[in-house]
Amino acid sequence: MKIMISAESTIDLPKELLAEFKISTIPFMVILGENEYKDGEITPKDIFEFVDKNKILPKTAAINEEQYKDYFQELLKESDAVVHICLSSEISSACAHAKEAEKLFKNVYVVDSKSLSTGIALLAIYARKLADQGVEPKEIAKKLEERVPFIQASFVVKKLDYLYKGGRCSAVSYFGANIFQIRPQILLKDGKMGVHKKYRGNMGKVIETYCKDALEEFNNPDLSVAFLTYTTATQEMISAAKTALQEKGFKTIYETQAGATITSHCGEETLGILYFNDGEKE
After folding, report:
1. Per-residue tens of pLDDT for the chain, all 282 residues
2. DSSP-based helix, strand, coil % in the chain, nearest 5
3. String of DSSP letters for 186-240
4. Could you give phi then psi for residue 66, rounded to 5 degrees?
5. Which residues, 6+ apart, have CB-to-CB distance to 16 below 8 Å?
6. Interacting residues of 122 by C-beta distance below 8 A, sequence separation 6+
7. 15 Rama sector, left if φ>0, alpha if ψ -120 to 50, beta otherwise
8. How far, in Å, CA of 46 to CA of 21, rounded?
9. Concatenated DSSP letters of 9-63
10. C-alpha to C-alpha distance for 1 and 131, rounded to whole angstroms
11. CA–CA distance, 112 with 248 (Å, rounded to integer)
């Protein structure tokens, strides 16, 4: 049986990894002023240049039910089943739209990742592994749902401007962060984003402390794979995160840059580490 593993462009994987793991994607739309672009057609650099020039933040548009229906139909022309992994339903309406489209097919299985970015990628890679082992698509979806609560997805943002103006953090948090130059750690919990810890100072040192804290708090990692994902980052930030993951013993560490949709909501110098925190189980 040929099973297609699928996600939205918010999976934040480069073309090379999408091809390696045979993952199909459907793009969100990113709106810069009066112009719309598919996620993947523009880069984080394009977004930041637009914001600097126009003083207007980008907007994003979720995929609707009709678009999912057409997309699933196309995938099923070349596969026997589709396992589609959505951006958290607590963040976007896209998942609800995908689940409505799912009802039109007998062989499409939609999974709510309760996550974002390469937290979705962790599930997609796991799904591909199961598919290659001959696991049935319905069982793949079930196994993915069982691992959703164990995704450690968090990141540190340099400024809260993008999250605040996009309606994803409170005015009090935003005001305090700007006044005191706080670098908040955003943690995905039950599919929702919330401030978990607060740091101050140079982002390189902040990332070093954040990674140490995250790995100590979520201390049962599946060491087979981890992601180091950022919108933009200094070499100091990247090195601090990579060193922390290497010292923990992760066998494979993928360094990826977030796509346009995630960047539109997080802003510059945002970096996170993501992994499954169910090592004993694996």
Report:
1. 999 999 999 999 999 999 999 999 999 999 999 999 999 899 889 998 998 899 888 889 999 999 999 999 999 999 999 999 999 999 999 999 999 999 999 999 999 999 999 999 999 999 999 999 999 999 999 999 999 999 999 999 987 665 555 554 444 454 455 545 778 899 999 999 888 998 988 999 999 999 999 999 999 999 999 999 999 999 999 999 999 999 999 999 999 999 999 888 888 899 999 999 999 754
2. 45, 25, 30
3. EEEETTEEEEEEEEES-HHHHHHHHHHHHHHHS----TTEEEEEESS--HHHHHH
4. -65, -40
5. none
6. 115, 151, 225, 227, 274, 275, 276
7. alpha
8. 28
9. GGG---HHHHHHTTEEEE--EEEETTEEEEBTTB-HHHHHHHHHHH----EEEPP
10. 9
11. 29
Parallel, antiparallel, or unpaired for β 23-26 and 3-8?
parallel
Tokens representing residue 277 in the block:
């925190």
- Return the amino acid letter for 126: Y
Residue showing tokens 């494979």 = 252
